[in-house]
Specification:
Helices cover 44% and strands 0% of the residues. The chain has helices at 4-10, 15-31, 50-59. The longest helix is centred in the first third of the chain and has 17 residues, at 15-31.
């Protein structure tokens, strides 16, 4: 949910080592009968609002209003 992972994957000095670790993890998952997926997302918030970004991802509901401090709000995906 943070940008650090993206930097590690796109930085030419870091990416080869990070890619090797991820490739090995993928190999181990496949060998155990599992798979994995990843993607870059556009965060629902910036500037220290990580809890909201995590909650949005876990809920599966896109936040389309400014209701971060309300206990409930209408949102659409």
């Amino acid at each position: 949910m943070e940008s650090y992972g993206r930097v590690a994957l796109e930085d030419p000095d870091l990416a080869p080592e990070v890619d090797a670790v991820l490739d090995e993890g993928t190999r181990q998952l496949r060998a155990a009968g599992y798979g994995s997926r990843s993607a870059f997302l556009t965060s629902s918030t910036t500037g220290g609002g990580s809890w909201l970004a995590h909650a949005t991802l876990m809920s599966g509901i896109g936040r389309t209003t400014s209701c971060a401090t309300q206990t409930s709000c209408a949102a659409t995906a």
